[in-house]
Design goal:
By secondary structure, the chain is mostly helical. The protein is 78% helix and 0% strand. The protein has one domain. The chain starts with a helix and ends in an 11-residue tail after the last helix.
Length: 243
C-alpha cells in the first residue's frame, strides 16, 4: 500500500498492534528460513555444532545450545524431533570421546600448551579437584556447567577413570540436556505457529517461552555451580602442599 493510502485508511494502526505484527512477520520469516533447510542437513549441523561445543579446542566459543534450539524450531513431527535428539546426543558423545582420548594420550602436553594457558590454570585445577572429589557425579553435572563441560572430558582422560565409566555418567546427562533443549525450541515454534492466525501477540508468546527458558537455564546453572563450588575450591590444608 502506498504511504498516502495507508495514512488515509480508515483503520489506524496502534503502536502495540503494529509492533506485534512486525514481530510475527519477523519470526515467521526466520522460522520459515530455518524450516526451508533440508531436515537431514539441519540435523547434521546440530550434531556437528554440539560436537564442537564439547571440544576442548573450540568448545568455549561455539554456541552449540543456540544452534540446537534454532534447529529444533523447524521440527515438524515426533520422528523428526527424535532424530534431532539422537543427532545431538551422538554429536556430544563424539566430542566428549575425542576430549577423553586427547586427555588420555596428550593431556599434560595440552595443559602446558599455549591453548592450555589461554584456558587458564585456575580452570584446569578446578576441573581436576572437582573430578577427584566427586568422580562420576562431576562428569554428570559438568554437562550443565559452563567451561567445565569442555574441560571435564580431557580431565577424565588424564585421570584413572575408565572410558566405560565415563560414558556411563555422561550418556544420561547428555540425553537429558538434548531432550530439554530440543523440546523447548519445538514447543516455542509450535505454539507460535498454532496461535499466529488467531492472536496478534503470538510472537510475544514465542519470545516469552525462549526468554523464560534462557533465564531459567542461567539461574539453574548458577544455583548448580554454587551448590558444587565447595567441591572445586582449594581446601585449607591444601595451601601448604607443594605443586
Amino acid at each position: 500500500m502506498h504511504p498516502v493510502d495507508l495514512a488515509l485508511s480508515a483503520e489506524p494502526i496502534t503502536g502495540g498492534a503494529g509492533f506485534g505484527q512486525w514481530l510475527n512477520d519477523a519470526l515467521t520469516y526466520i522460522l520459515d528460513t530455518v524450516q526451508s533447510v533440508d531436515p537431514a542437513l539441519r540435523t547434521v549441523l546440530a550434531g556437528v555444532a554440539i560436537m564442537l561445543e564439547t571440544s576442548i579446542f573450540i568448545g568455549l566459543i561455539v554456541p552449540g545450545d543456540t544452534v540446537v534450539i534454532v534447529a529444533s524450531t523447524a521440527v515438524g513431527s515426533v520422528v523428526e524431533g527424535s532424530f534431532l535428539v539422537a543427532a545431538v546426543i551422538v554429536g556430544a558423545l563424539i566430542g566428549e570421546s575425542v576430549g577423553f582420548a586427547l586427555g588420555r594420550y596428550f593431556g599434560p602436553k595440552i595443559r602446558e600448551s599455549r591453548l592450555g594457558d589461554r584456558i587458564g590454570r585456575a580452570h584446569w585445577d578446578q576441573a581436576e579437584r572437582y573430578l577427584a572429589r566427586r568422580g562420576g557425579i562431576a562428569v554428570f553435572i559438568s554437562r550443565f556447567l559452563p567451561v567445565l563441560h569442555s574441560l571435564i572430558p580431557v580431565t577424565v582422560g588424564m585421570s584413572a577413570m575408565r572410558y566405560r565409566t565415563f560414558m556411563a555418567w555422561t550418556v544420561p546427562a547428555t540425553t537429558i540436556w538434548s531432550i530439554t533443549y530440543v523440546s523447548v525450541g519445538a514447543l516455542a515454534a509450535g505454539s507460535f505457529r498454532e496461535l499466529l492466525d488467531s492472536l496478534h501477540y503470538a510472537g510475544y508468546i514465542f519470545v516469552a517461552i525462549v526468554a523464560g527458558f534462557a533465564v531459567l537455564a542461567i539461574l539453574a546453572k548458577k544455583l548448580l555451580q554454587r551448590s558444587q563450588k565447595r567441591h572445586m575450591e582449594i581446601l585449607e590444608h591444601e595451601h601448604e602442599q607443594p605443586r
